[in-house]
Amino acid sequence: MNGIITALMVSFDQDGNINEKGLREIIRYNLDVCKVDGLYVNGSTGENFMLSTEEKKEVFRIVKDEAKEETQLIAQVGSINLRESIDLAKYATELGYGALSAVTPFYYKFDFEEIKHYYNSIINAVDNKMIIYSIPFLTGVNISLDQFAELFENEKIIGVKFTAGDFYLLERMRKTFPNKLIYAGFDEMLLSASVLGIDGAIGSTFNVNGQRAKQIYDLAKEGKVEEAREIQHVTNDLISDILDNGLYQTIKEILKDKGVDAGYCRQPMKVLSEEKTAFAKELSNKYL
After folding, report:
1. Which domains can be identified in the chain, with CATH numbers?
2. Which of 40, 91, 133, 264 is the catalytic position?
């Protein structure tokens, strides 16, 4: 399961309901236009932590029905409700998702033994594989090299989505665990991570900028770092403008400008002002 994998957006209508037509269009745009290598479903970018269990299942169902066997599918099932995580893991596995992922349990200050129990409980309940989702700046959970080694003792835990800026730890992990999958999670650091030998990347901006991401990743693997750096510069200009304007809302507005019914973000995320909506369209024309 290598390559550029989109952290998939979900389309909602103005009342916050899942817009199935729009979600299918987002999937098709990623596969047909961005040409990404896979979809990471129900992650942060999919506004997952504001959805009910049944809504999460609906997203899993729609994505699988639309993508079928065209691409690699990873189901993010993490929650601080372990029962929900196991329920979602079973559902996604039955649908045919090729791997599961789970964010580290957050909010409460879980110790490492509790975190280890969480991952083992989810993956041992199903016939599937697990990719740890490590995103310390949002969860407050930092996992050390030795702790990753303990987690990887479970052969069904096959890798990590590494959304952190600690590239020393990333390098140590690559050397220590050559047979585990390591995905970069910060789009703006894709080149730096690629040089260290990652197996791929999972990112939000790939919903619109997937082609450049693939170029950066492929060029880095070929040793063409100078060429990759120029594309990363352009990518980071785009990312900076998106972040300044409102991450998820701006990506959705760019998709709309490309003819995709990307809908709205779910409250309490706000609707962009007219000025920011216009700026999103400017970014669409300037960069994409």
Report:
1. 3-225 (3.20.20.70)
2. 133
